[in-house]
From TrEMBL:
<keyword id="KW-0285">Flavoprotein</keyword>
<keyword id="KW-0274">FAD</keyword>
<keyword id="KW-0597">Phosphoprotein</keyword>
<feature type="domain" description="Flavodoxin-like fold">
    <location>
        <begin position="17"/>
        <end position="155"/>
    </location>
</feature>
<dbReference type="GO" id="GO:0005829">
    <property type="term" value="C:cytosol"/>
</dbReference>
<dbReference type="InterPro" id="IPR051545">
    <property type="entry name" value="NAD(P)H_dehydrogenase_qn"/>
</dbReference>
<dbReference type="Pfam" id="PF02525">
    <property type="entry name" value="Flavodoxin_2"/>
</dbReference>
<keyword id="KW-0479">Metal-binding</keyword>
<dbReference type="GO" id="GO:0046872">
    <property type="term" value="F:metal ion binding"/>
</dbReference>
<keyword id="KW-0560">Oxidoreductase</keyword>
<comment type="subunit">
    <text>Homodimer.</text>
</comment>
<comment type="function">
    <text>The enzyme apparently serves as a quinone reductase in connection with conjugation reactions of hydroquinones involved in detoxification pathways as well as in biosynthetic processes such as the vitamin K-dependent gamma-carboxylation of glutamate residues in prothrombin synthesis.</text>
</comment>
<dbReference type="InterPro" id="IPR003680">
    <property type="entry name" value="Flavodoxin_fold"/>
</dbReference>
<dbReference type="InterPro" id="IPR029039">
    <property type="entry name" value="Flavoprotein-like_sf"/>
</dbReference>
<dbReference type="GO" id="GO:0001512">
    <property type="term" value="F:dihydronicotinamide riboside quinone reductase activity"/>
</dbReference>
<comment type="similarity">
    <text>Belongs to the NAD(P)H dehydrogenase (quinone) family.</text>
</comment>
<keyword id="KW-0862">Zinc</keyword>
């Protein structure tokens, strides 16, 4: 397609304008349809540099565009995707102690703030408690099997869970 403003490129404006005129690429429209049809969005990834991997962040940047996932006048509890639930399920390289308030990595909730609150909650998505497997490569095979069993069990009861508060208090208390 064409740029809305070829003199001063602004990614947010360009994607919003492309969305409004139906000018997003076919693959992005297909991903948006998947999001529209889903009741629950599960994001499974390894924590990488205290964040989701770049490919997942790129997916969010490209798919969750203004007009589709959010509008500046309709965000957070009034966001455009407020009928959705999300769950971040991830592995870490460090132990649970590393990601504690006293640990070198700080409380894992601090890491989750931009992902869960800044992206999902901003778009209106309700956020379930994250599922975290700490340092699976550094534990016994038995412990890894326990992690998988816990994930399997959680998936069976997921629809009974209540979303987190998603307020600053939840992340920084």
């Amino acid at each position: 397609g064409h740029l809305h403003n070829s003199e001063a490129f602004n990614y947010g404006v360009e994607t919003w304008e492309a969305y409004k005129r139906g000018g997003l690429s076919k693959d992005l429209v297909e991903e948006q349809k998947k999001v529209q049809e889903a009741d629950l969005l599960i994001f499974q990834f390894p924590l990488f540099w205290f964040n989701m991997p770049a490919i997942l962040k790129g997916w969010m940047d490209r798919v969750l565009v203004q007009g589709f996932a959010y509008d500046l006048s309709k965000s957070y509890d009034c966001g455009l995707l407020q009928d959705k639930l999300s769950l971040f399920s991830f592995t870490t390289g460090g132990s649970q102690e590393v990601y504690s308030k006293e640990g070198i990595g700080g409380d894992i909730r601090y890491v989750l703030w931009p992902m869960q609150h800044g992206i999902m909650h901003f778009c209106g998505v309700k956020v379930l408690e994250p599922h975290i497997c700490y340092a699976p490569e550094n534990v016994s095979e038995e412990k890894r099997k326990e992690m998988l069993a816990a994930w399997t069990q959680r998936l069976k009861t997921l629809w009974k869970e209540e979303p987190i508060d998603c307020s600053p208090d939840w992340y920084f208390k």
